[in-house]
Amino acid sequence: MSNRIGIDLGGTKIDAIALSAAGETVFEKRVATPKTYEGVVSAIGALVHEAGEGSVGIGSPGSNSRKTNLWRNSNLLFCNGKPFQRDLETAIGRNVKMENDANCFALSEAIDGAGQGYSVVAFFTVGTALGGGLVVNGKLVVGANGEAGEFGHTALPWPNESEWPLLPCFCGKKGCAEQYVSGTGLQRDHSHATGENITSKEIVARARRGDAKASASLQRLQDRFARVAANIACVVDPDVFVIGGGLNELPELVEQLPPLISRYSFSGTAVAKVVRANHGEKSGVRGAARLWD
Ligand SMILES: [Zn+2]
User: Fold this and answer.
1) The domain 104-281 is classified under which CATH number: 3.30.420.40, 3.40.190.10, 3.40.50.10320, 3.30.300.230?
2) What is the pLDDT of residue 64?
């Protein structure tokens, strides 16, 4: 069996990896993300050629429209409206599989990370935004329209009076989970409740020092995260929730979450398992390499 090559395209850097059939890293390289569309296509082509023979999976913000075959919803704006996958296949000379970065993280963690050995793995990446991915028996669930596992754009479940009116989301709807369960959401919520404009890191630090206002903001974040997770449990009742992203180091969002999820579960007693992602920032490129598995 040949190598698996993974590419992780980000806003500032492109990571490449090649994994041997045994799963060992046999090639690794990082380059800065070029500022033009043509530059990105040729940089990825060059990285793959350097990595050698093998299947190619690419993790990238955005997705391919199945209707038009043009790229959409990418924060690398110059990729939108372009036949990105086709142009990459031409540059590389091989067929490629492409997925958004959260789906690549999810796959990597499910196959040989924190979700290894579990059948149904629900993955969250909690950072400035809230990404999600669902893996069942080692296979990514992408859905009929490529929109499965978009946990950040499910609605905040069971909103209470203080949460009205619901916050608008960039996707055009109101009340998306990402607007609440993210570093950005925590910051905005704290500012709204207290008038203090401080970073999410500072909110956490103050909460740990016993600051009542910061503790209340952190508790609202936990409660909302638990509702989002319990809502997912109503659909697939995952064997494990894996939490990655910048905020995953918080015990408040990992160790303290299961009893809160339980409270919002249908029975009120369901036991949820919540663990921290293993591969850190390498998840994206490792998952991309696994897209052909
Ligand atoms: Zn949304």
Assistant:
1) 3.30.420.40
2) 86
